[in-house]
Design goal:
This protein has about 240 residues and is an alpha/beta fold. The protein has one domain: NAD(P)-binding Rossmann-like Domain (Rossmann fold), CATH 3.40.50.720. The chain has a seven-stranded parallel β-sheet with strand order 3-2-1-4-5-6-9, with helices on both faces. A two-stranded parallel sheet has the order 7-8. The radius of gyration is 17 Å and the shape is globular. The N and C termini lie far apart (about 40 Å).
């Protein structure tokens, strides 16, 4: 089995890539960070693929490289994503919206299209899992632009699930709440900044990458062969709270 993981140099993508390799997948790790990419690839012998998910040519080149060196892609996990900035809608720079849209929406569209084409050509079926956000269902002041892009991702997941089902390709997403990663560590180290996030979660703690990995592995496996078009919250009950 061959898996392509975008955002593979990051905390979430890296943890998923490592877990897929542990299950015997031949893994291609894609990222825009060449240093982090090389480090992650060296950990378990993954194929490093420099890829800017905003760029159609880069996506096509990365997918072609993966197929040429590892074989047909069976699994896509699209974990690349950005917030772009933080601020109320009336003050947020438009550039922050553009940055989030380019990666989270355009990137999802391009990865789904190009990997979908490759899976159809291979005639082996496949599974795609996109990393969405609980914020796509529940608004947070200052993150409306980011949450809008994740809601758009959810819509793309559902449409792609319908269109690709005749080819045996399943498309799902997971929607975590805040996750402890190296990227979020500095911001969450401040107790005053951390407390409001924890207070929203009935289970009383932030997620770790270990909380996400099992659900992603399930959705990529044949154990979930009758699951498609689902956006699965992994949020410690956050969505049970009123806004």
């Amino acid at each position: 089995m061959v898996a392509l993981v975008t955002g593979g140099a990051g905390g979430i993508g890296g943890a998923i890539a490592t877990a897929l390799a542990g299950r015997g997948h031949r893994v291609a790790v894609a990222d825009v960070d060449p240093v982090g990419l090389a480090r992650k690839a060296d950990e378990f012998g993954a194929l490093p693929v420099e890829m800017d998910v905003r760029d159609e040519a880069a996506v096509r080149e990365g997918v072609a490289k993966t197929v040429a060196e590892l074989g047909p892609i069976d699994v896509l996990v699209h974990a690349a994503g950005v917030v772009g900035g933080v601020g109320p809608l009336l003050a947020l720079p438009v550039a922050a919206l553009d940055a989030a849209y380019a990666v989270n929406v355009r990137g999802t569209f391009l990865l789904t299209r190009v990997v979908g084409e490759a899976m159809i050509t291979a005639r082996r079926g496949g599974a795609m899992v996109h990393i969405s956000s609980a914020g796509s269902f529940q608004p947070t002041v200052g993150l409306g632009h980011y949450e809008a892009t994740k809601a758009a991702m959810n819509a793309l997941v559902r449409s792609a699930a319908l269109e690709l089902a005749p080819h045996g390709i399943r498309v799902n997403a997971v929607a975590p709440g805040p996750v402890e990663t190296p990227l979020t560590a500095a911001a969450l180290a401040d107790p005053a900044a951390r407390a409001p996030w924890v207070e929203r979660i009935p289970l009383g703690r932030l997620a770790t990458t270990d909380d996400l990995v099992p659900a992603v592995l399930l959705l990529t496996s044949l154990e979930a062969r009758h699951v498609t078009g689902t956006v699965l919250p992994i949020d410690g009950g956050q969505l049970l709270r009123s806004v």
